[in-house]
Amino acid sequence: MKMTGAQIVCESLLREGCNVVFGIPGGAILPLYQTLPEFPDLRHILVRHEQGAAHAADGYARVTGRPGVAFATSGPGATNLVTGIAAAQMDSVPMVIVTGQVSSAVIGSDAFQETDITGITLPITKHNFLVMEASNIARVIKEAFYLANSGRPGPVLVDIPRDVFLEEVDYEAPGDVKLPGYAPTLGGHSGQIKKASSLINKSSKPVIIAGHGVIISRAYSELRELAETAQIPVITTLLGISCFPEDHVLWSGWPGMHGMAYSSLAIDESDLIIALGMRFDDRITGNPKKFSTGSKKIHVDIDPSEIGKNISVDVPIVGDVREVLSKLNDLIKPATHTDWIKRIEQLKEEHPSLNIPQTDKLLARQVIKDISEATDGKATIVTGVGQHQMWAAQHYTFKEPCSLLTSGGSGTMGYEVPAAMGAQVARPEGVVWSIAGDGGFQMTLCELATIVENKLPVKFAILNNGFLGMVRQWQEIFFDSSYVSTGYSGNPDFVRLAEAYGIKGIRVTDKSQVKRAVSEAMDHDGPVLIDFIVEQEENVYPMIPSGMTVNEMMEEPVTEKVTV
Amino acid sequence: MSSSTGRHTVTALVEDQPGVLNRISSMFRRRGYNISSLAVGQSEAPGLSRMTFVVEGDPATGEMVAKNLHKLVEVIKVVDISDENAVSRELALVRVKADVASRSEIMQIVDIFRAKIVDVSQGTLIVEVTGDEDKVNSLVDLLRSFGVQEVMRTGTIAMSRGVSFEGEPQATRIPQNAS
C-alpha cells in the first residue's frame, strides 16, 4: 500500500499502542500534523511550549508504563524539548520523540530553523535516529519503542526531514526488531541469585533499598513478599517512593540528603543492603567511601554499567528486578529480625525527622500533611525540584503504587506543571495534585492553558514562600544568609492568574484555612489552583550536606514544642 | 575520574553507520575517560567496523569503559584484552632531518628496528615503523637527536592470540555478573 512518510509515522505509532501525543506544530513537522486528521485514534494534545510536551509525555509514561510520545518541529521546537529529554534520561523514563527536520537537501547548510538535534541529544537519549528515507520510518519507529521501553528505559528521538514526511513509498509492516548490539539481560544469573539468598538468610540487620526499578518493573508484590517473608525493613529511594506502601509496618522511610534521619542511620548500621533497581546516587550515599562501610551489598539492576559505578558491591545481579525477585523469593527463609526492627524503631524515636513544629505560622509541611490526609494518601503527587519536593516526599503518606512523579536525577524546576498534565491524561479519573514552589511553577505555567483546553482537573498547590527556597536554604546554611538572587519580589497574584486562565483560584494565608481549601479543591470538578502563602524561611531537615556522611547530619533545631 | 594507574586495551565491534564514532567519543568525553589512542577500520564482516581503544585508568575505569561502550546500541561486542596474550601494533611515519653525515647512522638505527625508509629528500628522510607502542616510542626517541620534524601515528590496534574472541564464550566478558 502506498503511504507517505507522515502516514507511516501515524500508523506506526498506533501499532505500538500509542494513542496520545503531546506537541506543537511548526514548518518542518507540518506534513505530519496535516496527516493527523486521517488518524482520529491518535489524540494530539496541543501544548504551549515544547518543554511541556516532553514533561507531559514523561508524566504520561511514568503512570502508564508505556512510552510517552511528543512531537516538535525543527530548530527551536526541538531544542525546547531538551530539558524534558534530559530529565527523562536521568530518571529512566520511556519516551519516543518525533522531531521535524529541515528538508534533506538543505541539511548542513544552516537552513532556516535547522538544528542538529540528533547531535544535541546524543548524550541525553538512550538512542536517536535521523531517518533519511520514508521506507525506513516503520522499522525505526518500531525500534524506537522497543529501545525506549526495554532494558533500562529511556527517551529515544527520531528526527525526520520535511521531505521524508512527504515521500510516498510502499508501506510494509516491519518484522521483528533486529538490533545485534542490544540485548538486555533480564533473568539474573542463578548462581548470583543463590549467593544473594544465602547472604540474606544469614544476615541479622538487613535493609532493602528499593529504587525506581521496582516501579518500572512493577515488582510491588515481589518486593512485599521478600520483605514480609524475611521481615526486612524497606527503605526506598526518592524515585522509589510509593513502590511499597508507606502505611506498612516494614516501611522505613527514605534516606539521604533530606531523607529521614532514621533511614540513613539504619543503612549505616545495617549488615546487609539489598539494593533493588537503584543506582547509589550521590544524594543517597553522601561520601561514597564512607557509605555504610560495615554492610555487605547485593545490587540488582538491569543496567550493568550502574553496578560498581559509585559503590563496590559483594553480589551484583544484572537483571529485571521483578524477574530476579521472583526467583530470589523461592530461596528466602522466613525470619523475624525482631531486635533489628526494634533498633530501627528506637532510631525513629530518637530522630523524629517528620515532626512538625507547633506554631501559628503556615508551614509548607503542614499543607502537605493536610493534602495527604484529605486524599487518604491515594492521589498522584507531582513535584519539581526543591523544598516543596522534599516536603512532599517526606510528609505525604503514599499508599498507592507509582503515585509520586518527581524530577529526581536531573532536578528540573517546572516539571511539576506539565508532568501533572500528562499524569492526569493517563489517569483521567484519578486525583492528581501538582505540588509546586512559586519558582518552578512560573517556569512552565503556560501549560495552564493546555490543562483548561483539555478539561484536565489537576489540583495545583503552590507553596509560595517568595523564594527559590532550597537555594535560599543553602545560602542561609553555607553562605551566611547572603540571599543573592533568590527572593522573588515580583510574583504575580496567582489567584487572579488562575482566574485569567479560567481556573478556580483560592488563596490561603492562615493555617486554619488549609483543610477547608484542600477539600474545596477536591470537591471542585475542574482544575483548581491554591496559592499557599507559607512561612518564607522554613528549612528542610534533616540535611546531610553534599559529600558528607550521616555523622554530619543536621537535624531540625528544636526551638519550639513539637507535636507528632 | 580515577587515578591513572594503568592502561587498558579494549576492542569493540561496532555497526558501520554515520555517527557511531561521534556516539562513542561523546560517551568517553562525557564520562571523563582518558583515551590515549583510538583506531578504527573495517572488520572482516561487511557493515561492521572494529575499534581499538587504549584508555588510561585503574582497573575499575577499564571495567566502566567496557560497560558503557557495551551500553551503546550500535556497539555489538566489547572485549578488554589488557590482561590477555595479545598482539598490539601501531604504524608510525617519522620525518627526520638527515644530511650526508647522519644518513648512514640513521639507516643503521632503522635497520635495527626493522623499520623502513620510505622517502628520501635533500635534507630529510621519512621512516616507517610498525610495532607495539614501546618500540615506536624508542625509535622516535633515538631519532630525536637527529631532529624529528614530524610524527604521525595510527594508534594501537590489538588482537588476542589464539582463537578468535568472536568464537569464545569470553566474548561476553563485559562484566555482566561480576563487578
Quick description:
The complex is a heterodimer of chains A (564) and B (179). Chain A is of the alpha/beta class and 564 residues long.
If you had to describe this structure to a student in words, what would you say it looks like?
The complex is a heterodimer of chains A (564) and B (179). Chain A has 564 residues and is α/β, with parallel strands linked by helices. Chain A folds into three domains: 2-170, Rossmann fold (3-Layer(aba) Sandwich); 190-350, Rossmann fold (3-Layer(aba) Sandwich), CATH 3.40.50; 356-540, Thiamin diphosphate (ThDP)-binding fold, Pyr/PP domains (Rossmann fold), CATH 3.40.50. Helices cover 36% and strands 17% of the residues of chain A. In chain A, the strands form five sheets. Chain A has a six-stranded parallel beta sheet with strand order 3-2-4-5-7-6, sandwiched between helices. In chain A, strands 16-15-17-18-20-19 form a six-stranded parallel beta sheet, sandwiched between helices. A five-stranded parallel beta sheet of chain A has the order 10-9-11-12-13, sandwiched between helices. The radius of gyration of chain A is 24 Å and the shape is globular. The termini of chain A are far apart. With 179 residues, chain B is an alpha+beta fold. Chain B has two domains: 7-85 and 161-172, ACT domain (Alpha-Beta Plaits), CATH 3.30.70; 87-157, ACT-like. Chain A, domain 2 (Alpha-Beta Plaits), CATH 3.30.70.1150. Chain B is built from four helices and nine strands. In chain B, strands 5, 6, 7, 8 and 9 form a five-stranded antiparallel beta sheet that branches. In chain B, strands 2-3-1-4 form a four-stranded antiparallel beta sheet, covered by helices on one side. In chain B, strand 6 and strand 7 (124-131) form a beta hairpin. Chain B is elongated and about 55 Å long. In chain B, 30% of the residues are buried. The interface between A and B is medium-sized, with 28 and 27 residues.
